[in-house]
Specification:
This protein is an alpha/beta fold and about 350 residues long. The protein has 15 helices and 9 strands.
Length: about 350
Amino acid sequence: MDNLPEVIKGDKRLSDDEALSLFDAPLQVLGKAAHKIRERLNNPKQVTYLIDRNINYTNICRVRCAFCAFSRDEGSPDAYVLSFDELDRKLDETAAAGGSGILLQGGCHPGLGLDFIIRMFSHIKSRNPALRVHALSPPEIVHLANMEGLSIEDVLLQLITAGLDSLPGGGAEILVDAIRMEISPGKCTSDEWLDVMRAAHRLGLRTTATMMFGHIESRADRISHLAKIRDLQDETGGFVAFIPWTFQPGETRLADIVSPAGGVEYLRTLAISRIFLDNVPHIGASWLTQGLKMAGGALYFGADDIGSVMLEENVVASAGCTNRTDEDELRRVISAAGFAPRRRDAVYDYVDSA
């Protein structure tokens, strides 16, 4: 790989073709390159983590993606919408555990409009003003805009007024429309996903970006996804982190046709993400889908963050992925890998003392 020394030095931005060729690089050389870039962009002695709770305020979603085992149709016996009393209990438990915020998502409910979301955000902030509301996703924002006949920016402005603090990068899957039409034809397009993030950044919201890979996409599709994130980051600078994670077929409709990506493919994709996304500050490891041992190893393949304790997680668990952890264990994994653990919030600001 003649271009790898230039990549390590950071003297040259990778083209899409060069990034794709890195999938053929020796794994350890690729990891070394990613780690050197990670050390240059972030504190080389520290790895961050988060305490929060993934709350799904409903499991009713009109989209019903092929990769999702969590969503339900309206009228299903196990369909639900959380009451505010149930929400309060979850918020209180999160605060008591030292959580800095919540990740709040619910999919595209056909009957819950903007008024409901605004009331929910206002309720959360009135009861727990210190908790950061890291909520919804671009597909949910597009869904609300279409329901209400409003622009993306109008929806975001109303949500910010109600208490939205930052926007997670969910619903990206693979930002290639041919792939999206196969696995989530009812969800927003790639351009719509990017348009939501562009508007959010313009309004001052910091956001994350994600990629769910290891299903029907090609490696070239992954690079196309990364390129769209990098291009928008050049334009806005609003992404604080990128988190790639592997599809878990489990109980989904893709289970019989997809073999899950293994650890080597995960580490390759993670390292290439760090090398290619030269303008995104942080790269997150996914212990939830890969397990804690692999997440510890990922800290030498470009990741500077190990993710959230996740006091609650429903979507990936519904596909059959049952990895669990707590703060002490996450700190042990970070320390065992040779780093100092630092607790952060959803936008990667420290919430502890060094």
